[in-house]
């Protein structure tokens, strides 16, 4: 699978925006895997496929909390690459599962780069005003945001190449049937949603009400 | 900040969006905090000069808070600076705010509102809505509170000043957390049913969905880590099966 240059450039620039949204500027949640993967898929012309892999990645990311100085996997840039690569593939459960596994590796790589950037920021910004006073401090602050943008660009570039190679390498030797892969994807999504419910205070009556509404909707729709 | 011109207030609000721009392990969001406060300090102490540098230096140290709720602290400190409050008092005030603003934001935004908004998007997608409807609804719902907290937080802080603790205690934040948590739990129940929906009529898929629910309830906080370990095992198994199959 190959991307045209304009598409690839669009992807990596969006990767930069997503990385910055994750921490440095805004946090409007464009960096959530659901949004990032869907737009990644949209850039390659398949937003629905991007949304499908984004949904699975989002459920896996529901319990990740960016609290204080905690080190956590970074979902955004990895999801952009995943949405784009899955968007360029046949929409089946096996490539979906294989790409989700590869994306989890990328998320940890992203988390490590965030950690390194924070160390670098510590060196760029001293505790007190140094060179060029207030203006210098303002400039260095903007430089840090620029570094974060470049980090996202690099992560999506590497991620797209990595996931393409990962799928190309694993899929020919994947021994599980399409049906088993599909069952695994459903199992992952359901298990993660259930654990999210536990993390939300486990209000069983409200979960039961939601489940009954779902069952009634399914019955009426059948 | 009510004593500041509208231009200063808007610049402070816009800068607050980048409060985590230079996040580091030494001062956490301290640099971003000072960066956000600069328009107010320039208004008070002039565009350049030692007085301004001293004021900025006072705010460059360690500071941490939830990024959205940081506007509350920015507003309050801008008011104290305008009132020419003693720097030592401002420092003690900032120290007292740090923990409470972080905890409030983590509980309201990260642990409740964001999962709830995400679940709205997921439920819409699982229910068959067009891709963009799920995304737009999630972003609109999430950012409605996000932007409200930033804008009202700045205003609340700038009006309350040293009275901020009392004002925060009176704010209806805990009822909002409780309600959002209930809605999120209902959405999680609905999402589980919709995610397992293709299973209806297929006993194997129903069994997988039920097993996944039990697994999620039992493993709870460690579900992600456990699933990643299981996926690693599945990958090895699938490749071994594929290699053996190809060899045969």
Short précis:
The complex is a heterodimer of chains A (222) and B (248). Chain A has 222 residues and is mainly α. Chain A has helices at residues 5-22, 33-43, 47-61, 76-87, 93-124, 133-170, 178-199, 204-221.
Using brief descriptors, characterize the structure shown.
heterodimer; A: 222 residues; mainly alpha; 8 helices; 75% helix; 0% strand; B: 248 residues; 10 helices
Describe the SSE topology.
The complex is a heterodimer of chains A (222) and B (248).
Chain A: H1 5-22, H2 33-43, H3 47-61, H4 76-87, H5 93-124, H6 133-170, H7 178-199, H8 204-221
Chain B: H1 6-16, H2 30-45, H3 50-58, H4 70-82, H5 87-126, H6 131-160, H7 164-170, H8 173-195, H9 203-219, H10 223-247
Helix pairs in contact in B: 1-2, 2-3, 2-4, 4-5, 4-6, 5-6, 5-8
Write up this protein:
The complex is a heterodimer of chains A (222) and B (248). Chain A has 222 residues and is mostly helical. Chain A is built from eight helices and no strands. Chain B has 248 residues and is an all-alpha fold. Chain B is 77% helix and 0% strand. Chain B has ten helices and no strands. Chain B has helices at 6-16, 30-45, 50-58, 70-82, 87-126, 131-160, 164-170, 173-195, 203-219, 223-247. In chain B, helix 1 (6-16) runs antiparallel to helix 2 and helix 2 (30-45) packs antiparallel against helix 3 (50-58). The longest helix of chain B has 40 residues, at 87-126. Chain B starts with 5 loop residues before the first helix and ends with a helix. In chain B, 48% of the residues are buried. Chains A and B meet through helix 2, helix 3, helix 5, helix 6 and helix 7 of A and helix 2, helix 3, helix 5, helix 6 and helix 8 of B.
